[in-house]
Amino acid sequence: MRILLVEDDAMIGEAIQRALKNASYAADWVKNGQTALTTLECQHYDLVLLDLGLPGKDGLEVLTTIRAKGNSVPLLIITARDDLTDRLRGLDGGADDYVVKPFEMAELLARMRAVLRRKGGSATPALSNGVVALNPSTREVTVSDRPAMQLSNRKFALLQALLTRPGAILSRSDLEDRIYGWGEEVESNAVEFLIHALRKKLGKEAIQNVRGMGWMVSKGK
Question: Which conformational region is residue 70 in: left (phi greater than 0), alpha (psi within -120 to 50 degrees), or beta?
């Protein structure tokens, strides 16, 4: 999944971006509110992590603008402001959660997963089409009654993108967009290589090739 991180502190931003990539997210990082708003106009994101103490446009102003434009992207505020008034303004302004710095990355990742589940209408952590099941918290995949298997970051990100929309055909560019962040080198056959590797693990029928269009996982029964 693709995440937009809005954070002006270089040390914090680098640490969060690194942790997100290690957790199989494609993470883009901007350092001020106006750039965040511009970026959201031209790029789809699955979730936004928004600091409040930003240069120029304050984070709460950025949040208000995002929601006023009708953008319902899941959004977590990450900030050192622990005052009750700020928390209420953030949550009432449209944030899905409010995390106070300093925080443990494990907790932030868990809160992100919880928000994404709620937005997806699911109360359970696993993504499944009835045959293939993927647990985002453990990055393990199971097929029917076979033992759970651990996936690498890229394979996990690709399978997660497909299982988030079972029955939908995702093109190469769709999948690259979910797997790679800004500045990451993408080889021309990277997606095909990952799908080939996943099919070896899960079985050839787990991921279907729709010739000339892309790939999909079935909706199941």
Answer: left
